[in-house]
Design goal:
Radius of gyration: 22 Å
Shape: elongated
Helix content: over 70%
Strand content: under 5%
Number of strands: 0
Largest sheet: none
Number of helices: 10
Length: about 220
């Protein structure tokens, strides 16, 4: 559920992009869109506006439930508000297309910097209340997040600006919108599964119940 909540603005962007014609034809949005603009530009403007609204709602709901602000949501809100506003006013999708890359690379820099600044990598600060791991495992886990954020940002940049350069602009935009939801969400799910497998190995190996004096004695008694 948290993954869906984190992807809420992206999901709404996707739905709004492909339902932009309906929204323009049946709501007040038609008064805000220049009819001379190509359909995919108008759809991008509508979807971007909806994603900005969704980001504010996301931050508000999280604060209402926890009375705290999540940094990822705040960073995302600031970026989509700035880059999205430029996209809306200029009618240029390039700015909103940069948003996932900037956000992911910002997180990569923060996670990497935490290994130099501070006593613990940021992933350890986030998770050490729930599990205990050796220091080298925490560092490996933190570096894996750095790699994940960097690869996600690079993949978004490639799909947005370099994939199928010979195709029509509308087709390329459709491809990016699909990747923004399914591609980035798929990468996230795959990474979380791999991380869980990696953690399960170390948690089982370092399970304190397997190393207690009682268990050691029991094992000796059962040995012929």
């Amino acid at each position: 559920m948290k993954l869906l909540f984190d992807f809420f603005p992206i999901i709404l962007f996707f739905v709004s992009y492909y339902q932009a014609h309906f929204l323009i034809e049946n709501t007040f949005i038609s008064q805000l869109i220049d009819p001379a603009k190509p359909d995919f530009i108008a759809a991008t403007i509508v979807a971007t506006g909806m994603a900005i609204i969704a980001s504010f709602i996301q931050v508000g709901i999280h604060w209402f439930k926890t009375h705290k602000f999540e940094r990822m949501h705040i960073f995302s809100l600031l970026l989509i508000t700035v880059l999205g506003s430029i996209t809306i006013f200029l009618g240029n999708p390039a700015f909103i297309q940069w948003k996932p890359t900037v956000l992911n690379w910002l997180f990569a820099a923060v996670f990497l910097g935490s290994m130099v600044i501070g006593e613990k990598p940021i992933v350890q600060r986030m998770m050490n209340e729930h599990i205990e791991l050796p220091e080298n495992v925490w560092r490996t886990l933190n570096l894996s997040w750095v790699a994940f954020f960097f690869i996600s940002g690079a993949a978004n940049l490639y799909v947005a600006f370099y994939y199928k350069l010979g195709a029509a602009a509308e087709a390329r935009m459709d491809t990016w919108v699909n990747f923004k939801l399914f591609g980035l969400m798929g990468l996230t799910i795959a990474f979380v599964i791999l991380q869980a497998i990696y953690l399960s190995r170390h948690i089982s190996e370092d399970d304190p119940e397997q190393n207690t004096p009682e268990s050691t004695t029991s094992n000796k008694e059962e040995t012929p």
